[in-house]
Design goal:
The chain is 70% helix and 0% strand. The longest helix is centred in the N-terminal third of the chain and has 28 residues, at 21-48. By secondary structure, the protein is mainly α. The chain has a single domain (3-83), classed as Helix Hairpins. It starts with a helix and ends in an 11-residue tail after the last helix. It is globular. The structure holds magnesium ion. Magnesium ion binds next to α2 and α3.
């Protein structure tokens, strides 16, 4: 599935109680934080309880939480009129440039 196609389909399920940009952006950002926390919690259990062994069940659970984060990121991009394809393309170009210039392990957003 293409990123923009995902964004379009996911937006059909973005139903917010208020039609208020600030409210929606806040809910989306809280959602990103909450769902990211759910990933971390599952990874914690993977490390602590499963001794680092990735069971099929754990993998599936983490996959679902990654999807939840993806959904919120998709909504954030949409609210800011950003195309998911465009974001993915720009990100891979940035990372490829850093790789080619041996700058992956240095610091700064604009390196
Ligand atoms: Mg979740």
């Amino acid at each position: 599935m293409e990123f923009d196609e995902y964004q379009k389909l996911a937006s059909r399920t973005a139903l917010f109680a208020k039609d208020d940009k600030e409210y929606i952006l806040m809910l989306i950002c809280l959602g990103i934080a909450g769902e990211s926390g759910e990933i971390l919690e599952k990874v914690k259990h993977l490390v602590r309880d499963d001794k680092g062994v990735v069971t099929p069940e754990r993998r599936e659970g983490i996959k679902k939480e990654i999807g939840d984060v993806l959904w919120y990121l998709s909504q954030l991009a949409r609210e800011l009129d950003l195309s998911f394809d465009e974001i993915a393309d720009a990100n891979i170009k940035k990372l490829t440039s850093r790789l080619e210039r041996d700058m992956l392990n240095s610091e700064g957003d604009d390196r």
